[in-house]
Specification:
The protein is an all-alpha fold and 204 residues long. It has helices spanning 25-42, 50-57, 62-68, 71-89, 96-108, 111-120, 129-145, 151-178, 186-202. The chain has nine helices and no strands.
Length: 204
Amino acid sequence: MTGIPRDWRQGQARPGDEGAAPAEPRDARLALLDAARRLAGDRSGRPFGVREVARTAGVNHSLVYRYYGSLEGLLEAATGDRDAMVLRLLDEPGTDGILEALFDVALQQPYVAVRLAEVSFGESQGGWAQQAVLVRRIQERIAELHADLEEGEVIARTASLTAAALGYVLYESFLATALEWKAEDRATIRAHHRDLLRELLTRP
């Protein structure tokens, strides 16, 4: 995603700089969106909160609530374009779009895995509407690929595929340490896991 220019800080107040002008509302909004995207891409869980996003953006944390209502609202706004791109992948024929949407994009931004896991396993009832749509679209695509499967079998296949993909993303760093992976081996291991996902997706 395209970040905002580095000079967005111009005119913003910094700690100990009493004379600096306050950020313009539009600059603060862009700064918060950019900070949320960067933190979401760097973290594999959700260990950051409103204050850290605001600190990264260089603005007061109250602006998160003023402009977006909550951290979840900010993240929805920050990742909405990526979510739309992921949903477009699921319109592609075959299996590549599903694997890219569910595995490749989540590897690039591990926070996606956390959001999808919450929806997939019923931990988030009221939020992450785009992610709920994504899980349903994966289920629909599996039903299209396997017209002979019963509804319950489609649901089970969706759950297995989602768990296998997101579980790897969530635990890759842990596995790399516990199994003493060499850094140069990670791409090979990812490709192997992707092949396993394809097999799970396409088997009769």
